[in-house]
Amino acid sequence: MTSATILVADDDAAIRTVLNQALTRAGYEVRITSNAATLWRWVSAGEGDLVITDVVMPDENAFDMLPRIRRARPELPVLVMSAQNTFMTAIRASEGGAYDYLPKPFDLTEMLNIIRRALSEPRKVPQSAADETSEGMPLVGRSAAMQEIYRVLARLMQTDLTLMITGESGTGKELVARALHDYGKRRNGPFVAINMAAIPRDLIESELFGHEKGSFTGAQSRSTGRFEQAEGGTLFLDEIGDMPMDAQTRLLRVLQQGEYTTVGGRTPIKSDVRIVAASNKDLKVLINQGLFREDLYYRLNVVPLRLPPLRDRAEDVPDLVRHFVRQAVREGLDAKRFDTEALDLLKAYPWPGNVRELENVVRRVMALYPQDEIASDIIDNELRIESPEPSSRSGTSGSPTSISQAVEENMRRYFSGFGEDLPPPGLYQRVLEEVEHPLILAALTATRGNQIKAADLLGLNRNTLRKKIRELGVTVYRSPRPV
């Protein structure tokens, strides 16, 4: 079998040397150039079995050349490299018809694996190029962790695969879902988001699937659900771990059969919706506790994507700060510049509230301080407010945090996550339910599932405890007695 010929275009002499040596050792014939004009001459003449090109060339941007390559050689795999390393770079490479995208610096082993895969796969003629993307940057960051996310999203853009996004609160799960929709094949359809934790449990099915007039008390007219509203587009199910079991069963049926019925309705309705789910909880733990259906988990977890906490990609903090400053300026705040020492302090902070917390700090600083340049003393003061010393939070130094203190800290972070807005109504009942569930579960675990002892331990009537177990969906553990 004749060895494949790889065409390489990069104006960096060191990279050309490394690629020439690595590809030659792997048994490929290599032709290398430092400009786009020569690469295009080779491609248009029908030479080469695969192209590796940098985005920025001295005479032409590779993204401008990709459409011509697609028209002339639609079956030719093109691997794009770039040191720009932004979300839009990955998306433009995908939309331009590139086989894959690699950020610089790249891993040679990974590149060789991609080349082997590209040359062994039967090539499909790509669809026509998508519309030019806007210059807006939906996702920000150049860290290695974000590069992997960009690559996954770029590969998913032209598919309808279900995506499960996990990560701590404030990492940008809805932002990722919106980016997938806005730059994907369903961009002309609606994007509908629903937060399971913000809706009363007995109304979730009606919110999702709609209801018929008279189907329950208060149903004065027919109401459309989020599935119907998202028809032809994307439905984002945030905090999926808070979905009640009955609603989980109905959602599973939709995913399996592609149709649903409204609450009180009998006629099945076909569903054409892409599902993106998200959770800041470990769903496998919820499965073990009997709070989440395992079969639904595997239906949703077709493509898993975990978003890193901001502390694990601290090198992205300066880019994020500049992004939030530009946003605030467009909204009417005066422009500010953060000096190097201030940025270093922001990079060193652990950010328990992640990107959302950083955004709140940047906006607060821009609004409260008249200085054009934000220095380190300002940031140091704001971060002390953001995260008080342990002694100010927990009384005696070294003493464990009380339940009251833990709830207070949790509520502070929860409210800060909404910025200047307020959380959805019904917060009191939601907080009580969140506290009740682990409390009753702990009592049942401590009493090995003995409900009489658990009721006595909690100071509840036995029938009241049974009612709470049913309402909250608490799994009753009955472990054997120790011998």
TrEMBL record:
Q: Which GO terms describe its molecular function?
A: ATP binding; phosphorelay response regulator activity; sequence-specific DNA binding
- Per UniProt, residues of the Sigma-54 factor interaction domain are 139-367
Q: Where is the Response regulatory domain?
A: 5-119
User: Which InterPro entries is this protein grouped with?
Assistant: AAA+_ATPase, AAA_lid_NorR, CheY-like_superfamily, Homeodomain-like_sf, HTH_Fis, P-loop_NTPase, Sig_transdc_resp-reg_receiver, Sigma_54_int
Q: Does the keyword Nucleotide-binding apply?
A: yes
Q: What Gene Ontology cellular component terms go with this record?
A: cytoplasm
4-aspartylphosphate-modified residues are 54
Pfam families assigned: AAA_lid_14, HTH_8, Response_reg, Sigma54_activat
Q: Which UniProt keywords apply?
A: Activator, ATP-binding, Cytoplasm, DNA-binding, Nitrogen fixation, Nucleotide-binding, Phosphoprotein, Repressor, Transcription, Transcription regulation, Two-component regulatory system
| A biological process from GO | regulation of nitrogen utilization
What Gene3D superfamilies is this protein classified in?
A: 1.10.8.60, 3.40.50.2300, Homeodomain-like, P-loop containing nucleotide triphosphate hydrolases
Cell compartments where the protein resides: Cytoplasm
Role noted for this protein: Member of the two-component regulatory system NtrB/NtrC, which controls expression of the nitrogen-regulated (ntr) genes in response to nitrogen limitation. Phosphorylated NtrC binds directly to DNA and stimulates the formation of open promoter-sigma54-RNA polymerase complexes.
The protein's name is DNA-binding transcriptional regulator NtrC
In its UniProt entry, the species of origin is given as Hoeflea marina
Taxon lineage: Bacteria, Pseudomonadati, Pseudomonadota, Alphaproteobacteria, Hyphomicrobiales
Q: Which gene encodes it?
A: ntrC
